[in-house]
Amino acid sequence: MTEYTVSVQAYAKAVLHCAKHPWATVHGLLLAEKKEGKIRFVDAVPLAHNWTNLTAMFDVALQQAQQYAKTKGLSVCGYYVAYEDTKATQLSASGALLAKTLVEADESTVAFVVDAKKLTPGSSGAAFVPYVYAEPQWKEQSNAFGESGKGNGTKGASFVLENNRVVAVTRKLVDERAEVWVHDFDEHLDDVSLDWLQNQALSERIRTT
Amino acid sequence: MSSSLKLLGEIRQSSERRPFEVLKLAEPLLNKGSIAQAGDEVWLVYEQVFLAAIDEGQIDVAKAVLEILHNRFGEESQRVKRLYGLVSEATGHPEDAKRLYDDMLEKDATNVLANKRLIALLKSQGQYVQAIQELVSYLDTHGNDFEAWLELTHLYLDQHLYSQAAFCIEEVILQQPANHYFHLCYAEISYTMGNLDVALKEYLRVVELSTDNVRGFYGVKLTADRILDITSSRGSGKSKGPSHLKVENAPQKAMLERLSQLAAERLLAIYSGSGDAMKKTLEEWLKL
């Protein structure tokens, strides 16, 4: 049974990436540290908010993210995507292919689709819907995070948020418009001074909230 | 003209979607009445504020602005009328919006604004096939609306219909051959489809048409290197590589190596202005 934990930094960055481009499909990677069979997503690396079905820059970004992860002792084993269509929680065909590229490099890769309904002010619980690879498909783990962030996924994978403040902290950051601190690879390509891999100012903001 | 008005004008020009900033800039202008300084352009500013308010879910602001526009332009203005449709869409009454757009189109089948709003509505309702059909039929009579061709490109891409998307972006390029953005789109679609020779050609066009285009140079290096990889492994008979990758019309090995090297040099030059972390990331990637 693989236990996956999502830290506030990873969760908040991914959600803020969505908040910055609310009318677009956005996607990115999740970096994890692995210890004793447990996988902890510690950071999110936002990739794109445009042409997310096209693979060229994804290939470049993935290579650079994998190199970066290695220097930090982390693994790229998560893919997140939030669709323009707020009702969509199914991993799309292109999402499945992109996530498959990751799983071929690291078999513990999981994909997360962001459920927009769970991002509305009144809702609670994690907005991530996990997908686990069971060749040749990705299988949805619905209700995997459970009501109070306690994992109850199936097929040998369980998912939790690192603590019960993750959602509240993220909500606060969204309210404060902290999304201006998110810079994805798309933005980096227009301005190479933007550090899309670390987004340090944002990490600091999350840490101090 | 105040600096806020100037900024609002720039945002209108660039067609960027920045509703939060638009509202922040416009609020004091509206409250103090200084929006009148915009002269004839004031109606464009009102329309801009309306759209921003809709985007931000500030329906009351949108309705207030809409009333101002209504009072100025009256019942018969199609441009104002379709804004009522937007309010319906934003407040969760898509049926009312659809009825309005259908109505407008019945009275005038060539009404561009109503046509486009209808297509956007269908898209937001998840009726992609119908949205595509409507847009295709719109393009039958408005074949020189390259923005519509671009929208159709996006609709096809959303449906993973890459060759149809490629056809559409080719149309856009026919009409706007000097715009590097469209060549970039075409390059990326071609790369995704495995047409590496076309992708390389288009990426080269991108860097030719613009200065310091990072995406373009990454694309040149990426495709040139991949083609070199494939042609060498195919040539040696060791492995054929995925057979759907097309490299037939690519340049010769020596040229590919030169292009790859040039792209790397250009990237290093551009990155010399960025921080150490990003510079190091590029250098490591170039070693791959």
Could you walk me through the main structural features you see in this protein, from its secondary elements to its overall organization?
The complex is a heterodimer of chains A (209) and B (288). Chain A has helices spanning 8-20, 56-71, 93-105, 166-175, 185-190, 200-207; strands spanning 2-6, 26-35, 38-48, 75-82, 110-114, 128-134, 137-140, 157-161. Chain A is an alpha/beta fold and 209 residues long. In chain A, strands 7-6-5-4-2-3-1-8 form an eight-stranded mixed sheet. The model of chain A has no long low-confidence stretch (mean pLDDT 93). Chain B has 15 helices and no strands. Chain B has helices at residues 3-14, 19-32, 42-55, 59-73, 78-90, 94-107, 112-124, 128-141, 146-158, 162-175, 180-193, 196-209, 214-235, 253-271, 276-286. In chain B, helix 2 packs across helix 3, helix 6 runs antiparallel to helix 7 and helix 7 packs antiparallel against helix 8. At the A-B interface, helix 2 and helix 5 of A face helix 11, helix 13 and helix 15 of B.
* Tally of helical segments of chain A: 6
Weakly predicted, low-confidence segments of chain B:
none
Strand segment count of chain B: 0
Which pair of protein chains has the largest interface, and what are the residue counts?
A: A-B, 29 and 32 residues
- Counting DSSP E segments of at least 2 residues, the number of strands of chain A comes to 8
Provide a quick synopsis of the model.
With 209 residues, chain A is of the alpha/beta class.
